[in-house]
Amino acid sequence: MIEYIIGVDGGGSGTRVRLARLDGQELAQGQSGPSGLGLGIERAWTSVAHAVTLAFRAAGLEQPSLQRMAIGLGLAGVHNKQWAASFVEHNPGYALVALESDALTTLLGAHAGQPGVIVAIGTGSVGEVLHADGSRHEVGGWGFPSGDEAGGAWIGMRAINHAQQVVDGRVPGSAFATAVIDACGGQRNAMQVWLAAASQTTYAQLARLVLEHAASNAVAHGILSDAGRQIALIARALDPAGTLPVALCGGLAAPLSSYLPAALLQLVVPAQGDSAAGGLRLISKHLQEQ
Fold first, then answer.
1. Comparing C-alpha atoms, which of 81, 144, 126, 129 is closest to residue 253?
2. Identical fold between 4-112+272-289 and 152-265
3. pLDDT in tens, 150-186
């Protein structure tokens, strides 16, 4: 018998879960490491398991067997159907698993299941719209490294590219460039080692330096201004008429808000819930349909 439902938001930087009773009463949250499917199926399930354990601990409850839980997950990488199928096949024992993209769960959480647009900006980026007729479609979400414009990894790659040009002497140095160079090893050989091992999560960690130096450095400011324009392009592609509310979600939504074009800012509304809350809505819907 299912007693608890769990909503999961998983990406390249971390995993967040919301724990609730079957009637929807939320009890606690938990956080753990990355669970984007591009980082590996086993790693994703391990991160989810750790976050669930921490949520039960925060609620002061003994964690029951997985057979007494149903879980709804919004994970980065679900667009790769082989990864998604493998993830579900490796279900460690949950009574029911509902897996969708993190874009859909973010959409369900942000507008409480009502029509609207979301642009989620974290390690990566993706946008999705839910229309009044129930139809939906997605923009972006192509993944690292070819897509994910405005996401942390994209910002980080722009930063390290600038640092490489500074090391080469192609462009002048700055405190911003020095901070990036130091974060990646401090000199050319060490930077090349860093680059060889870098993942989307690693690149995304450089976004913090771009944000810190944007007020005083034109290159850093330009990177974030470009990110704002990319967010606007995603939103416009989702709702060309500009009639639906737009919620900006994810860890970089707030820091990038000041770099958005004015036309987009007029449509922006606060998100009512996050992707993990959307995961709860997702699994609740699946249970009702059974």
1. 126
2. yes
3. 999 999 999 999 999 999 999 999 999 999 999 999 9
